């Protein structure tokens, strides 16, 4: 990929689910489609060939419904989990669920011309369906499902009114977290802590509340009250600092918190002009964050002042927006860093446009040199 250029991959259907494929050496992302047509949804595996800038793809069928959330397992690159919604014409009802699939192969780039011709002439392939989890009540809404970062058999499922921690091997819920009191504030997302692996943080209206899954207690272990002036949309834990996390919300803000004293953010920017749907820390260089917004932009932002270890010297980068990526024409619902290359990230908009971008070279050199 040339310096300053982005690569665009277009899908036929609308999209709002994106994840990086972990535990592999390739720059590879998975995309889930959101089509209302029966048996038309797909999972696209997109791999960037770094030397040539060529994109290689494989497409898999996802007939259980439109994909609202997608996660590749951090323990097995061939395993993925989708949160989906399907319509039953017989009952005229929509039912959400969580399904775990196994990809038949990790190969995306063809090895020779014969294999390339075969791949180009092939329809969407089948994934192996491992398990599907359906809510007890068909009307229950599922916001997302997240793999535990250390236990391959444990997942957290965020409903609009509870969190279920499920043992996949035993095929049962081992813990259900229901907020204390009669709160009617609904959950909108959640994520496991990267350092304290027994903690699961949820977005609840304008708040962030974290629960210890080792206990049955309905009281949060810690919380950031009023993290945003409007609805919280996303959060991401700092991969290197145990008590730091970033959040994004409908107030167009990117905030970074030290949740030990979460009354005020330690870093805050409002560079977007509309809702911020997604925020991600760079896994290797924590001062780099990328956000996606309904303003149709992905922003690369530096937060070096709160990630700088040597406080006697100036930070390597100045705080603020380093680059604005404006190749999208619709709301950017997801952003993700590559797990294989710390300088490449992907952004996905609702119109089915995936944009692969790189950190500008001069910022990369400032960090490395």
From TrEMBL:
Coiled-coil stretches noted in the UniProt entry, renumbered to this chain: none
A Gene Ontology BP annotation from the UniProt entry: protein ubiquitination
Protein name as annotated: EIPR1-like beta-propeller domain-containing protein
Residues in EIPR1-like beta-propeller domain copies: 194-296
Gene3D superfamilies in UniProt: YVTN repeat-like/Quinoprotein amine dehydrogenase
Organism: Leptidea sinapis
WD repeat feature ranges: 225-267
Tagged with keyword Repeat: yes
Family: Belongs to the WD repeat EIPR1 family.
Keywords from the named record: Repeat, WD repeat
């Amino acid at each position: 990929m040339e310096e300053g250029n982005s690569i665009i991959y277009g899908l036929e259907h609308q999209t709002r689910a994106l994840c990086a494929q972990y535990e592999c050496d390739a720059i590879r992302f998975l995309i889930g489609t959101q089509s209302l047509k029966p048996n038309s949804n797909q999972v696209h595996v997109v791999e960037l060939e770094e030397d040539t800038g060529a994109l290689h793809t494989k497409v898999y069928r996802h007939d259980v419904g439109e994909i609202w959330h997608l996660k590749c397992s951090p323990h097995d690159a061939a395993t993925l989990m989708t949160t989906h919604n399907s319509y039953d014409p017989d009952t005229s009802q929509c039912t959400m669920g969580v399904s775990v699939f196994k990809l038949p192969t990790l190969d995306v780039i063809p090895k020779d011309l014969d294999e390339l011709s075969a791949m180009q002439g092939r329809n969407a392939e089948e994934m192996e369906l491992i398990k599907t989890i359906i809510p007890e009540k068909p009307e229950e809404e599922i916001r997302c499902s997240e793999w535990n970062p250390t236990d391959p058999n444990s997942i957290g499922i965020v409903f609009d009114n509870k969190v279920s921690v499920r043992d996949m091997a035993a095929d049962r819920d081992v813990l259900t977290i229901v907020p204390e009191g009669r709160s009617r504030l609904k959950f909108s997302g959640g994520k496991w802590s990267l350092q304290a692996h027994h903690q699961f943080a949820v977005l609840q209206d304008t708040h962030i509340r974290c629960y210890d899954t080792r206990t049955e207690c309905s009281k949060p272990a810690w919380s950031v009250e009023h993290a945003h002036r409007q609805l919280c949309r996303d959060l991401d834990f700092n991969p290197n600092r145990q008590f730091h996390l970033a959040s994004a919300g409908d107030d167009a803000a990117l905030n970074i918190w030290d949740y030990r004293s979460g009354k005020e953010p330690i870093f805050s920017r409002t560079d977007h002009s509309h809702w911020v749907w997604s925020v991600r820390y760079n896994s290797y260089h924590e001062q780099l964050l990328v956000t996606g917004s309904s303003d149709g932009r992905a922003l690369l932002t530096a937060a070096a002042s709160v990630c700088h270890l040597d406080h006697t010297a100036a930070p390597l980068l100045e705080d603020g927006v380093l680059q604005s990526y404006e190749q999208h024409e619709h709301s950017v619902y997801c952003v993700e860093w590559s797990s294989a290359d710390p300088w490449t990230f992907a952004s996905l908009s609702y119109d089915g446009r995936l944009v692969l971008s790189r950190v500008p070279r001069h910022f990369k050199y400032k960090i490395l040199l």
